């Protein structure tokens, strides 16, 4: 069994990667989700993980009556993915169709 020390070095190293749980990867494969949508999911999941960490540390900025959420403007996703808005929205809709993500509306903060 691999024992990884939770050090600053490990934390910084781990931040260099996007993560995809095996169960989600299998689910996306079964539902024939495109590779671009999978990559988008990893970016959204990474942002959600940061929101969750913030809430655990006592900051309720990313939590409401429905639970923890993340904010990721479409413009930022377009830039980070290197694709046009239409493509990113198509991938986003693929993920919504699979019930992996839910859109709550425009953020006010």
TrEMBL record:
Domain of life: Bacteria
Protein name listed in UniProt: Replication initiator RepA
Organism: Bacillus thuringiensis
């Amino acid at each position: 069994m691999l024992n990884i020390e939770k050090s600053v070095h490990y934390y910084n190293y781990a931040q260099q990667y996007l993560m995809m749980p095996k169960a989600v990867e299998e689910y996306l494969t079964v539902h024939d989700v495109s590779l671009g949508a999978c990559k988008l999911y990893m970016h959204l999941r990474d942002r959600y993980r940061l929101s969750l960490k913030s809430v655990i540390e006592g900051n309720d900025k990313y939590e409401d009556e429905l639970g923890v959420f993340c904010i990721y403007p479409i413009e930022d996703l377009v830039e980070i993915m290197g694709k046009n808005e239409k493509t990113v929205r198509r991938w986003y809709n693929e993920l919504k169709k699979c019930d992996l993500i839910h859109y709550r509306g425009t953020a006010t903060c």
